[in-house]
Design brief:
The complex is a heterodimer. Chain A is α+β, with helices and mostly antiparallel strands. Chain A has 2 domains: 85-249, no CATH class; 282-475, Porin (Beta Barrel), CATH 2.40.160. Chain A is 26% helix and 29% strand. In chain A, the strands form 2 sheets. Chain A has an 8-stranded antiparallel barrel. Chain A has a 3-stranded antiparallel β-sheet with strand order 2-1-3, with no helix packed on it. Chain B is an all-alpha fold. Chain B folds into 2 domains: 1-97, RNA polymerase sigma factor, region 2, helix turn helix motif (Rna Polymerase Sigma Factor, Chain: A), CATH 1.10.1740.10; 100-189, Winged helix-like DNA-binding domain superfamily/Winged helix DNA-binding domain (Arc Repressor Mutant, subunit A), CATH 1.10.10.10. In chain B, helix 7 (131-142) crosses helix 9. The chains are: A alpha+beta, B mainly alpha. Chains A and B meet through helix 1 and helix 2 of A and helix 2, helix 3, helix 6, helix 7 and helix 9 of B. Chain B: Keywords: Sigma factor, Transcription, Transcription regulation.
């Protein structure tokens, strides 16, 4: 044995270690680079690649929400216009060529002398024409049309809600002067601050008759028969409503003898046709769709690699109103990583070194046969679910075997490339999606999906799970 | 490598922080020899050393934010490489795949005289030690760890660390002697 003292021995090996300069092997960097790509692929790089798709997915629901919001806004504007009609009787007057008297303008009309103070003639019907100046209003049907439309909307959307029918069913309400206490209290009352008792008011309270009744009369009658009425319009339909129970505190004023509003009807020359109901568009029988999807494939639901690509061309046939049969072709490139245990090696391998894992790139032609059912079907939007079965044809398979010691001279198979053909009914399909119609013939679809293996596929007989998100353009031909 | 604690190194590190592949490659290339030398002392084969090397560099590139630029990058790198090698050793221990001491003892050595032994050959002698001897020897003699630190790292007692070091030296002497005897026999024939 060599008699080297400890420090000499240490020095020998220390010096040797310090001076050792192993040669650089570019393959080592390539191996690390691949790992870095995988590592970064989970975060920033993947995001950089796919953010446009994510943005698109966000824009679809935002677009739909905007559409809904605009629709609501349009309706609200329609209601607001109805409201504007009432406080601005001048507009009506100018349209109709008549000076309607509005309660808010009572002072004004009294001071001009055109309407003499007539305490008893002031009723809770806040708009009326004095008998002395009552004129027959022959409405111009053309001028009436816009108002009719607005009132129609108001009748449908607003008045019917605010004033229940029971408020109009009070006995005798149409045959005698209307006083606050003689009416049903179900409809509530409106405060009329400009009318004092001395000015002929009844103490500032009126019922909601004017707004509701006028609205109902004008809209119903105008809409149904085309008759135009001389009834005035409530100048402030949204005045403060106070509970009818508070009326008990107010003394009954018999001075405020109401005058029944006189309504004169003139048959217009042209009776406007009632608005035709929109024709129900029957469901199209056929449709074709072209789709693109990122294709995320995995063996064993782990070790996800970068997504591949899938494109599809599918035809759909409606077999029931909401049920479609769907088939076509899907081309996809599936990148995946399989651990050795998931990959069945051919028997010819024998005792050769076995790989630790396999990197696979498969180009697959898929023939799906699916059913699609529309669970929610709106005018523009549909939500649907789908399920079916797919057969795979392996167009090309490329596998790279990863060994623990790649330089091992006993390694015989570095990889494999070829095709293993058809795998019939190999996958179960499941999807759910949203369709938005952008025109009568075209619609956009977003549809997350999964392909669940029913049998092993490919040269390595792997249980290949695929997930993705179809972004499709659906075309509905003219024929139905 | 004194020149690399310089502006060039800082530029490379800045690029690595931005996940720039070119900067990463240059840094890797620059410190490859230094890092794999460490790995080789702690492993049995070059393949194993490469595996540890890349594990260590992956940590370097992904944890570079935690590096204090005021300190030596080389020292930081060596700590990471050694720690990665020790992690690897712990995993191997759990798998219990090490050869027995007897098998390791019977490994033949190259027929070269000690005076002509290259660095690679001396290194191969270290690699032929059993893992526990190899690690203690490398940590103590080459990387300058104290027995307390070694005991802490390897989860053994200080006494066991000292004992392993002593036996490692003994084994190395044996292997060196065998090389000499073999060389003598070869020349005598």
């Amino acid at each position: 044995m060599i008699e080297l003292p400890d420090d000499e021995l240490d020095k020998l090996f220390r010096k040797s270690s310090e001076e050792l300069d192993p040669q650089y092997d570019p393959e080592d960097w390539n191996s690390l680079k691949k790992r870095l790509d995988q590592h970064d692929g989970k975060g920033a790089a993947w995001f950089k690649k796919w953010w446009p798709l994510g943005l698109l997915l966000l824009l679809i629901p935002i677009g739909y929400a905007t559409y809904l919001w605009k629709s609501d806004n349009t309706l609200e504007n329609g209601e607001a216009k109805v409201g504007e009609l009432s406080p601005k009787p001048e507009q009506l007057r100018s349209e109709r060529g008549v000076a309607g008297t509005v309660s808010d303008n009572t002072k004004k009309t009294s001071s001009t002398g055109k309407q003499k103070a007539n305490d008893q003639a002031q009723t809770e019907v806040e708009v009326q024409l004095p008998a002395t100046e009552k004129r027959e209003i022959a409405l111009n049907p053309e001028a009436e049309k816009p108002a009719n439309k607005k009132l129609l909307k108001a009748n449908k959307r607003d008045f019917s809600k605010r004033f229940p029918e029971s408020g109009y069913k009070t006995a005798g309400v149409e045959s005698r002067p209307l006083l606050p206490r003689s009416r049903s209290k179900a409809g509530g009352v409106y405060l009329e601050p400009n009318r004092s008792k001395t000015e002929g008011g009844d103490g500032a309270l009126i019922l909601s008759e004017s707004g509701s009744n006028t609205g109902r009369n004008t809209t119903d009658e105008l809409a149904n028969s085309g008759q135009n009425a001389t009834t005035s319009v409530n100048p402030e339909p949204d005045r403060l409503a106070i509970p009818a129970a508070m009326l008990a505190n107010r003394p009954l004023s018999w001075k405020n003898k109401g005058v029944e509003p006189q309504i004169d009807f003139v048959q217009p020359d042209n009776i406007p046709e009632p608005e035709a109901k929109k024709e129900e568009v029957p469901l199209a029988k056929w449709a074709v769709r072209f789709g693109y999807s990122p294709d995320l494939s995995t063996v064993g639901m782990k070790n996800f690699t970068k997504p591949g690509t899938a494109v599809s061309l599918l035809a759909e046939l409606s077999v029931l109103p909401r049920l479609f049969v769907q088939t076509g072709a899907v081309w996809s490139r599936k990148d995946y990583f399989a651990e050795a245990g998931s990959y069945i090696l051919p028997e010819r391998w024998g005792y050769k070194p076995k790989p630790e894992s396999v990197d696979g790139i498969c180009k697959v032609l898929e023939i799906p046969l699916n059913l699609r059912y529309d669970i929610v079907s709106g005018q523009r939007s549909r939500f649907f679910i789908g399920s079916g079965i797919s057969s795979y044809y392996m167009l090309n398979e490329k596998y790279k075997y990863n060994y623990k010691y790649p330089d091992d001279p006993n390694i015989k198979y570095p990889g494999w490339e070829g095709t293993s053909g058809w795998f019939l009914l190999s996958h179960l399909n499941a999807s759910a999606g949203y369709e938005y119609r952008i025109s009568d013939k075209l619609s956009l679809l977003g549809e997350p999906y999964a392909r669940i293996p029913l049998k092993r596929v490919g040269y390595g007989k792997v249980n290949l799970v695929t997930m993705g998100f179809w972004l499709s353009l659906r075309y509905t031909p003219a024929f139905r | 490598m004194p020149g690399y604690d310089s502006a060039v190194l800082h530029e490379l590190l800045a690029g690595c922080l931005k996940r720039n592949r070119r900067s990463q490659e240059l840094l890797y290339k620059q410190f490859y020899g230094y890092a794999i030398s460490i790995c080789l002392r702690y492993t049995r084969s070059r393949e194993e050393a490469k595996e540890i090397l890349n594990d260590a560099f992956l940590k370097v590139f992904t944890k570079l934010e935690s590096f204090d630029t005021e300190r030596s990058f080389k020292t930081w790198l060596s700590r990471i490489v050694i720690n990665t090698a020790l992690d690897h050793y712990r995993q191997e221990i759990r798998r219990d795949v090490f050869e027995s001491v007897e098998i390791a003892e019977n490994v033949s050595v190259d027929e070269t005289v000690i005076s002509k032994l290259s660095h690679e050959e001396l290194l191969s002698l270290i690699q032929k030690l059993t893992p526990s001897y190899r690690l203690v020897f490398s940590l103590s003699v080459i990387d300058g760890y104290t027995h307390e630190e070694i005991a802490d790292q390897l989860n053994i007692s200080v006494g066991a660390s000292k004992s392993n070091l002593s036996r490692a030296r003994e084994k190395l002497r044996e292997m060196l002697s065998k090389i000499n005897i073999d060389d003598y026999d070869r020349v005598a024939r």
